[in-house]
Write a structure and sequence with these properties.
GO terms for molecular function: ATP binding; tRNA dimethylallyltransferase activity. Belongs to the IPP transferase family. Keywords: ATP-binding, Magnesium, Nucleotide-binding, Transferase, tRNA processing. InterPro entries: Dimethylallyltransferase, IPT, P-loop_NTPase. With 312 residues, the protein is α/β, with parallel strands linked by helices. It has two domains: 245 residues, P-loop containing nucleotide triphosphate hydrolases (Rossmann fold); 55 residues, Orthogonal Bundle (Histone, subunit A), CATH 1.10.20. 47% of the residues lie in helices and 10% in strands. It has 14 helices and eight strands. The strands form two sheets. It has a six-stranded parallel beta sheet with strand order 4-3-5-2-7-8, with helices on both faces. A two-stranded parallel ribbon has the order 1-6. Strand 3, helix 2 and strand 4 form a beta-alpha-beta unit. Helix 3 packs across helix 4 and helix 10 packs across helix 13. The longest helix has 23 residues. The chain is globular and about 55 Å long. The N terminus and C terminus are likely disordered.
């Protein structure tokens, strides 16, 4: 549950699986409301990962004010806790001149960190070293055993997050999924949630097509350019790991591309599982609504929020 204060400061959160069309909606809404956009994507912040993370193109970035887009290096790293701290400070500044700010992106952990607070969870350096010695498959199996609920929703290709969850489980003797759902921190803005959906078939087609576009734009070359940093957490990402396997000679180029499509579809499926548990203020099905009706959304924005979004 989100604990917020009711005032003229409103954060409009656009939810949706990867490839569903969040960028187009966020820009259209930002232009209509003259509102800035905060990107909530744990990888689009990195300058070296433009193609593989589907960073908005130059014309899209020019169409609205954007934040947390390619503003640091993969060498610097970035965590959900850091995002919470930096985004809250930025919101304090943005709300001085804007009644509305838009949050858009697919990193659900980062969204939760900003809306509810990032829990200070236990850790253990010894356990961390032990986990660093294990293969990815072993870690995934351990998570399935220790916390099957989190196993269902986490990006299993994100080894850093899997290790963190296991570290908490082993250090506390409790499930990470239970510990991280603590009491929400109070925020000084209201929250309005928009869910963007498509049929699964259409979403998967869009994902496959987007991967082909990425490859055509130079994803392979981009992956090769970050090869020296392949051990960093930021590069444990779909679209890069598969090309690293190709560079190592373990799979063919064609296999790498097909794996990227498959793993991206799997990631979208996990996002949809998480989204089903979220209560939205407004839902938009882009499979049936060919044109985004911004005025209808604006009209709905003027209605009272769900009680779960009000001050607790």
């Amino acid at each position: 549950m989100i604990a917020t204060m009711t005032n003229n400061r409103r954060l409009i959160v656009i939810y949706g699986a990867t490839g569903v069309g969040k960028t187009a909606l966020s820009i259209a809404l930002a232009q209509r409301l003259a509102a800035p956009i905060i990107s909530c994507d744990s990888r689009q912040v990195f300058r070296e990962m433009r193609i593989g993370t589907a960073v908005p193109c130059e014309s899209e970035l020019a169409a609205a004010e954007h934040h947390f887009i390619q503003d640091r290096s993969v060498r610097d790293g970035f965590s959900a806790g850091e995002f919470e701290s930096e985004a809250l400070a930025l919101l304090d500044e943005l709300f001085k001149v804007n009644e509305n700010v838009i949050l858009a992106g697919g990193s659900n952990l980062y969204i939760n960190a900003l809306l509810c607070g990032f829990d200070a969870l236990p850790g253990d350096e010894g356990i961390r070293r032990m986990l660093n010695q294990k293969y990815k498959a072993e870690l995934v199996d351990m998570l399935q055993e220790l916390d099957p609920d989190y196993h269902k929703i986490v990006d299993l290709n994100n080894t850093a997050r899997v290790k963190r969850a296991l570290e908490v489980c082993l250090a506390s003797g409790q499930k990470y999924s239970q510990l991280r759902t603590g009491r929400a921190k109070k925020r000084n803005f209201s929250v309005y949630k928009i869910g963007v959906f498509r049929t699964r078939e259409e979403l998967y087609e869009r994902i496959n097509r987007r991967v082909d576009i990425m490859v055509g734009e130079g994803l392979e070359e981009e992956a090769r350019s970050v090869l020296p940093y392949r051990a960093l957490p930021a590069l444990q990402t779909v679209g890069y790991r598969e090309f690293f396997e190709f560079f190592d000679g373990h799979i063919s180029r064609e296999q790498a591309i097909e794996l990227i499509k498959q793993k991206t579809r799997n990631y979208a499926k996990r996002q949809l599982t998480w989204l089903r548990a979220e209560k939205m203020d407004y839902e938009l099905n882009l499979s049936t609504d060919e044109q985004i009706n911004i005025e209808e959304i604006i009209c709905h924005l003027s209605q009272p929020l769900h009680t779960s979004h009000q001050q607790q």
